[in-house]
Amino acid sequence: MLRRTLNRWLGRDERRVDSRSICVGHRSSSNNEAFIPPKFCDNRIVSSKYTVWNFLPKNLFEQFRRIANFYFLIIFLVQVIVDTPTSPVTSGLPLFFVITVTAIKQGYEDWLRHKADNEVNKYPVTVLEQGRRVRKESEKIKVGDVLEVDEDETFPCDLILLQSSRDDDTCFVTTASLDGESNHKTHYTVPDTEKDLESLNATIECEQPQPDLYKFVGRMHIYKADQEPAVRSLGPENLLLKGSTLKNTQTICGVAIYTGMETKMALNYQGKSQKRSAVEKSINAFLLVYLCILVSKALVCTTLKYVWQNKPGQDEPWYNEKTQREKDTNLYLKMFTDFLSFMVLFNFIIPVSMYVTVEMQKFLGSFFITWDKDFFDPEIKEGALVNTSDLNEELGQVEYVFTDKTGTLTQNNMEFIECCIDGFQYKYQDAGTDLDGFCVTDGPANKVQHKAGREKEELFLRALCLCHTVQVKESPEQGQGQRDGLMDQVDGLGVDGKGLHPPPQEQRGFIASSPDEVALVKGAMRYGFTFLGFESKTMKILTRDNDVERYELLHVLNFDPVRRRMSVIVRSKSGDTLLFCKGADSSIFPRVRQEEVERIRMNVERNATEGYRTLCVAYKYLNAEEYAQADAGLREARLALQDREEKLMAVYNQVETGMSLIGATAVEDRLQEEAAETMEALQGAGMKVWVLTGDKMETAKSTCYACRLFQRNTELLELTVRTLEDGGRRREERLHELLVEYHKKAVQDAPPVKAGVTRAWSSANHDYGFIIDGATLSMVLNSSSESNSSRYKNLFLQICQNCTSVLCCRMAPLQKAQIVKMVKNSKGSPITLSIGDGANDVSMILEAHVGIGIKGKEGRQAVRNSDYAIPKLKHLKKLLLAHGHLYYVRIAHLVQYFFYKNLCFILPQFLYQFFCGYSQQPLYDAAYLTMYNICFTSMPILAYSLLEQHICMEVLLDNATLYRGIAKNGMLRWGPFFYWTLLGVFHGLLFFFGVRYLFGNPALQDNGQVFGNWSYGTIVFTVLVFTVTLKLALDTRHWTWINHFVIWGSLAFYVFFSFFWGGIIWPFLKQQRLYFVFANMLSSVSAWLVIILLILLSLLPEILLVVFRKPRGPHAGQLSQEGLLQTARLHLSHHLPIST
Amino acid sequence: MMASSYNAKEEDANHPGAANHAGVGVVKSKKPDNTAFKQQRLPAWQPILTAGTVLPAFFVIGLIFIPIGIGLYVTSNNIKEFEIDYTGANIDNPCYNCAKNFSWNSTAQCVCAVTFTLEQPFESNVFMYYGLSNFYQNHRRYVKSRDDSQLNGDRSALTNPSKECEPYRRSEGSPIAPCGAIANSLFNDTLQLYHIDSNGTLNEIPLVKKGIAWWTDKHVKFRNPGGNNNLTVAFQGTSKPVNWKKPVFELDPEDPENNGFINEDFIVWMRTAALPTFRKLYRIIQKKPSTTPTLPSGKYVLNVTYNYPVLSFDGRKRMILSTISWMGGKNPFLGIAYITVGSICFFLGVVLLIIHHKYDNRNNSADIPN
Question: What does UniProt list as catalytic (chain A) (predicted)?
Fold first, then answer.
């Protein structure tokens, strides 16, 4: 992160110029002799982090930047330097293990990246150099090189298209690997470039590399021998991005403008910001507590040591003299090293292995999401996708769900329902099934009544056919044919595309960036107007009378979410220049003659309340003068290097005025499967669902009703431009007034229900739904005065928090993120989840704690930027209620258990210091110290944390309320933590003192022989391992064979290992401390008895709690589950309201 | 750190080359396997701890533990144990003079006789322990101050003991065998036990010095360098520990099987005690073949050759006579603990039964309207 910022910083210094100049083919222009070719980076893609040489130091550095690793390294170093009780191996080995495993993993990943990089970098490309075609490796491409790319090849860098083998100077491209959109996009050559690239003498001026895939501005100066240099504008339509693939075009030539790490693709993959889960924050807090415990333990021991040593004869009795070096050491230095030694002795309380286990749990656990066949969607043949495993448990903590409407709540599978032409409603009676019937001009199946007059009707349908950016998908055979045709052209035979027959209707497929457009074109087709496709710049349509009409496409005024409309300017055969415009009612109505509006507005509003997406269609004739003006304006704006967007917008607005409204369309966007059930379940689980949509209020509202987000009895609080304008006063005042009023209603008058776990939603006597639109939201958020702003924001938040659902319509993508951010940072910092499918949801997906992408139809950007991706909305229910819940319970238990087991591991060691003269004598053998966390107790908890289902999935899905039991990080709050710590302390005390009293008489064998200190430690350790494992066994509610294997296996392994370890004189050991200690221990009946007693006694409170918990009724979330589990199993069919 | 692997995967997939490779195979493999494991539907046993299942367990535990506890307690009580402090810290102690006049340099041995009376006869084998108090055999510096390879008969370790043995590693230029603080501080009081019979004569009670150390220690862990023969030669070039009066190969000159490193007194001492107050097995008094008790009640004299100073660190020395049962030496703790835990379990069982019974009734009645 730091490095990147630094790089960027330095980078900015280097090239502060905001545009770069490139000589096409490195031919510097004659009239610019002083031109020094600037230095650009080469075309090497480096996604790898390491090289062979810097791998070790760099990787180690990266790893030790993690606080935990660094801490363990320090402990290890202390052990090496200072004379410490445990050998450096005890902490060095686990650390070495962790570091090695991580390094190997990262090394492997980097090797994969190197491989992928090489594959890309060594890919052969064809470069045109002085008229010759040279094969080069991709990495050798320099900015300014002219490249030739063949069909189905990917572009090796960002290119400006100079020449295409297609005769219409276009080429088709798919950007599937960039944004997942598999439709073919048309790109255009720079107009008026010479066909002979060798003699082309041009420079390109373009902006510095920037990551936005859809933005590009540049200018091309073409120098011709004896003419003024011509200037051509360059836009995204001229730019071929690295990573996209050439389709349906034989070859193209282009000039490289951005290479290597400066390509838009590379700029887009510089990583996302890391999201941290709430559990991780809890872990860090707990760690801090344990660190305090550790330090205070060490301090206590050090202090007591020196107090004890002050008594005569204790520090250095005759039998235990110090070495000369110890005697010489400075007292204070000695104290310090003693402190460090104690730290080392107790450092196991903060386990290395916890990090490993948590990471493993997350990594392995996330596979269950990808493996879940319920997430598999047969339609797209894909299951769920996990982009980060860090947030698994966060799925169980969600409080706010922000959902997009289109494509998320609704299917984004548009169907043309009806249209209204000139105020008359045309409803397509879906009597027939196929489209053939509508090719017949006046067959009986054609239900178009000539209500509005044939002329108007046809104008409307023509508008539908022309005003779009849809492409006709070419069927394979046809593609072949076309390719042949193109070959012919290249060969100079000059065969035109005319020879191609229009494909049969059934095979006609349309590709468009938005499904609305396809629906409209298909709708028009039903009424007899078929769009046949483009032919160079001509659009062909087949009319009802089976005539092919041709229109020359002059300009496309692209759709953008701000304008919310798009237009085309076409010239008909007769020479008329027409502008067709379609767009949202709010953006069209002000731009048409008002007398036409009223008739259509009624229809539009009715359609909107029925949940349809409406678009209005308008047109206008442009006379020659008007057209010339518009044409000039558009061209000029398109050439502008600076503020091109703004200038274009101004021209668009200027052109799209004074139109006449022809009609409106209604397209149905069906709800996603089980959308309502899912939403109901989420609300039942205590989540608040906010719908953030760019759509208009009426449509969004009806969707909300359909999804049961708003019920019939929900009182809607509206805060929209319309309600603001009601009073006829200033908006600001009205806003203030409304906010206060709603606040009073929703917050103050609401019965004081306690927020949190036990909130009973269904019983709330009043449900409020809140509706706000984009414009009002920006007023709330960016109020004129600073004080008002924060006050409004507060009021707004409080209202929203008291409403069951909130609907925000007319949102710009950034506003969606703003809302998420606002809620995220509000009091109590609730966990937010965003779900969406389109590029416009990316910002909110990135902003929320958990971002979920739906593998929908609007491209793949959402999926790419999400943390989890699922094929359908309905999968969200299982993802949250089952997977999320289980993951949370698993990891919370894992964390608590880890702290617990290490506390009761180290506590006896601490207590032993009081009996060994505070000399840092370890209680356990080094092998036990090392293996405890690695081998003896790690596997059962890992298995638990992967497989546990304290409540089975079906029950979780059926009872959404169970989700509330773990809300607000319920199992990792201080209460449960305190409980676990107490348990650990209790166990530790019990183990130590139990054995301490047994050793009141160390003659424990029936032959009168005595046990020593290692036997003491081994007995404590045996009790410890068994208790800790059995405690987990007690908590396990879901015993699969793996659990059995791992739990009993661990215990068996411990016994086996102890025998083995004590059975041999190990030549590499300095001291044979445990030689036959374990076997001798087992030969003592007393040892057996004390082990059994202590294990039982430690587990007794646990068992008691389990039993006592149930009749007392659930008070903590964690506790309630056992009870619920039982009852839930008994009454599977009942919905369970949580008592208390 | 694991998350990075995902990022890597993602990045890879975005390289055109990689994407093309993946594109073909993925479609088929993307359908998740319908295996029980992957679908988290492994057959599972789902035990639920309820009052119903736990209650019998409580009673069973109670019923098992209480008899065991009583058994343990009775056994422990039947063990006869006699303990006498012979440190000589007080003026009225017979060893007071020995303790007071102790000097490392004196060659003369100080002997003191402690008389005591056994009220009850000791049946079967009697074990004689010496006990030390406030002696930190578990001090870290002490515990590690030994060289196990030397003790295992390793010749190189014999001449070059481990550094852990400092400052008891070398003396006057030659390596110490056995080195280290533990060996150096070997308990070297000699205890002799006499029975004063009715006519006042002292009968020495035979003390067996074999079988006091762990079998494995004696036969595997501790080895003399070069076998048990001719230890004098084997230990040539080494010097005795500074506080010892005689070298290691003279620990028991009469019995080559008990000499050198495999001397059992030495082995017992080398097993460091767990707590600062401890006892170690010194001798065994074998049961007599006749029916007479091993140690009949009456007066005894303990003859102590006082070599081992403990007063400098405020320590105490004891001689303990004890019989042994199947559970080891006398220790009422286990018995009491078992009885207590057993009773608690039983009591809890009763309490739970009552609660369970009450609750169950309430629960049932509450269930009816459902």
Answer: 404
Is A560 marked active-site?
no
Tracing tokens 């578990």 back to the chain, one arrives at B138
C-alpha B368/C-alpha B370 separation (Å) is: 5
What is the CB neighbour count within 10 angstroms for residue A329? 15
Which of A45, A319, A371, A850 to probe the B interface (max B CBs under 10 A)? A319
d(CA B197, CA B300) in angstroms, rounded, equals 8
pLDDT tens-digit map of A303-315: 999 999 888 778 8
CA distance A552 to B60: 95
- Measured CA to CA, the distance from residue A292 to residue A310 in angstroms comes to 27
- Chain A CB within 8 Å of residue B243 CB: yes
Contact assignment for B279 to A1002 by CB distance below 8 Å: yes
The answer for residues whose C-beta is within 8 angstroms of residue A948's C-beta and 6 or more apart is A886, A889, A890, A893, A1036, A1037, A1038
Which strand (E) or helix (H) includes residue B279? strand B278-285
- In Å, how far from its chain's centre is CA B168? 25
Q: How confident is the model at residue A110 (pLDDT cuts 50, 70, 90)?
A: confident
Q: What is the CA radius of gyration of chain A?
A: 37
DSSP run (H or E) holding A416: strand A410-421
Torsion of CA B1, B6, B8, B10, to 10 degrees: -160
- Sequential DSSP letters for B71-118: HHHHHHHHS-EEEEE----STTSTTHHHHHT--SS--SPEEEEEEEEE
Asked if A851 and A845 count as a contact pair (C-beta separation under 8 A), the reply is yes
Using the beta-carbon criterion (under 8 Å), do A373 and B39 form an inter-chain contact? yes
What is the SS3 string spanning B227-272? CCCCHHHHCCCCECCCCCCCCHHHCCCCCHHHCHHHCHHHHHHHCC
Q: Among A14-23, A462-471, B132-141, which stretch is predicted with the lowest mean pLDDT?
A: A14-23
**Pairing of the two strands A768-773 and A715-719:** parallel
pTM: 0.78
Burial class (CB in 10 A: 0-12, 13-18, 19+), A692: buried
Could you tell me the strand order of the sheet in which A218-222 lies? Answer: A19-23, A202-207, A218-222, A230-234
The secondary structure of residue A849, as a DSSP letter, is S
The helix/strand/coil state of A1056 is helix
pLDDT for the residue B17? 36
DSSP β-bridge partners for residue A172: A186, A247
B60: closest CA among B351, B342, B334?
A: B342
| Rounded (to 5) percent helix, strand, coil in chain A | 50, 20, 30
Which of A179, A338, A390, A404 is catalytic? The answer is A404
pLDDT of residue A784: 64
Report how far apart, in Å, the C-alpha atoms of A87 and of each of A76, A91, A187, A294, A1072 are: 9, 8, 68, 19, 14
- Predicted confidence band at A1132 (pLDDT cuts at 50, 70, 90)? very low
Residue A43's pLDDT is 81
Please tell me the distance from the alpha carbon of residue B270 to that of residue A8, in angstroms, as a whole number. Answer: 67
